[in-house]
Design brief:
Length: 35
């Protein structure tokens, strides 16, 4: 179980970053294109 938890702890931040990038990227591109 410890190995599984360790794996989740390592992969979770990466997943969160990818999710944030998916949401933020369009906003950034829209800001750049709009500007």
């Amino acid at each position: 179980e410890k190995i599984t938890w360790g794996k989740l702890e390592v992969e979770t931040p990466k997943f969160m970053i990818q999710s944030d990038a998916t949401i933020v990227a369009p906003l950034i591109f829209g800001y750049i294109l709009g500007d």
